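Posting for a labmate who doesn't have an account.
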Amino acid sequence: MILFRADGNLQIGTGHIMRCLSLADAFRERGIPSVFVTAEPCMRTLIRERGYECAVLGSAYDRMEAELPALLSLLRARRPACVILDSYFVTPEYMRAVRAEAFLAYMDDLNAFDYPADLVINYNLYGSAAQYSPDKAYLLGPRYVPLREQFRNLTPRRVRERAEQILLSTGGTDQYHVALRCVEYLLEHPPASGTVCHMVLGAMNQDSKRIGRLAAKVPYIVPHRQVADMCGLMRQCDMAVSAAGTTLYELCACGLPTVTYILADNQIQGARAFEEEGLMPCAGDVREEIEFLEKIFSGLERLAADQMGRQEISCRMQSLVDGSGALHLAEALTAYFAGSG
């Protein structure tokens, strides 16, 4: 059995939970069950809907050492073969305590310190270049990005001459109101005739009702809530706007040319890496950039005007991510923790 320790809420978003759920699905395909442990009940319903048990510690997600007595008691009772830890609030002491009870794998984006884990996962574009210590195992680079099954082994994208269908994704919580700000911008600056902007609203987006009311005034803004087939929507569109999280790798699997932006410190390296590779222009940091919206939509205009450029970028994106990273990761992890036992 695999035990995932991760959190999601309005402050930190849903990304940690979502990528762990994709990996849990891959383990389930291998006949290996998973359970989730969270500090708060915020994500319990979603986790259960995906078919997994979720134990809630009733602790503070950002003060993890205080939960150790409860977590260690749970580990000793459940005896998982592997604990997969996905949180930016871990400490060396916390990790050492967990590692003493089970094989410990850590999902990393930051290389914040020398993690006392058995194995470190960093699937980011910049992961392979991270300066890690040599005393543990690593699974690095986009081969291991844990995407949902719907993104596996997609056919090459056919890039249309006119880019009229635009996807705007702002994450699970959108605490900086990017979706609402984009809608307000589009109302003041209507797009070219025939353009449709598909606005994906996360489950915890607090502006969804207001966005719905504003979008009802025009035919070119279409809100989407609780999207089950995100891959299908991405394949339908010609371009996208997305925060620089794991969604960028879903967009790569779909070959969808994208303008990205930053809304958290852990996204800075990823946005820079994609821009430096010539894969996705970055409109800047939503927390600092004054002309943020103008940069997003001017970036889309440049992409729309360059069909050959979009075709080249689309091919490079799909060659980077095959969509089977969760399977690759589950297979490699199983080999490691089985060997450790």
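Reply:
Got it, the structure tokens are right above this. The chain has a mean pLDDT of 95.
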